Amino acid sequence: MKCKPCPFCGNDDTIRSIVYPGEEGFRDRFAIRCDYSFGGCGAEGGWRHSEDEAIDVWNERAAAIRGSWIETDWSWFNHNVTQVQCNQCKNYLNLDGLNGGRGDANYCPNCGAYMRVE
Q1: Which pTM does this prediction carry?
Q2: What would the pLDDT profile of 27-60 be if each residue is shown by its tens digit?
Q3: What is the pLDDT of residue 78?
Q4: Cα–Cα distance between 58 and 105 in angstroms, integer?
Q5: Cα–Cα distance, 93 to 67 (Å, whole number)
Q6: Which long-range contacts (CB under 8 A, 24 or more apart) does 94-99 make?
Q7: Cα–Cα dist 79/93, whole Å
Q8: Is 52 helix (H, G, I), strand (E, B) or coil?
Q9: What are the start-end ranges of the E strands in 6-112?
Q10: Which residues of the chain fall short of a pLDDT of 50?
Q11: d(CA 92, CA 109)
């Protein structure tokens, strides 16, 4: 099964399959990533239980879903952090450590939704 090009940067030669080995009875997990270390943008399709399923998810999201971040109030051990939630997949993302502390993310790393900047 072949992966479509990255919906964000358009690269097709930087797409890699990644395996996270399961330990002590847990299954392996697979993801497709536009690999930053090979010149890609770092977009990822999310973790799945088979490589074929990961490829299917990557290819389905290659249409570039539009989404937006929902701001949340969240505190971790009395430290205020900037956390947002994707309106498409409901996944949470901590923005404080992204992009050298600038705290911006133009896509959801879980579902791949491209976020509108307002």
Answers
A1: 0.54
A2: 899 999 988 888 888 888 888 899 999 999 888 8
A3: 56
A4: 19
A5: 14
A6: none
A7: 16
A8: helix
A9: 15-20, 29-34, 66-67, 69-76, 79-86, 92-94
A10: 99-103
A11: 10
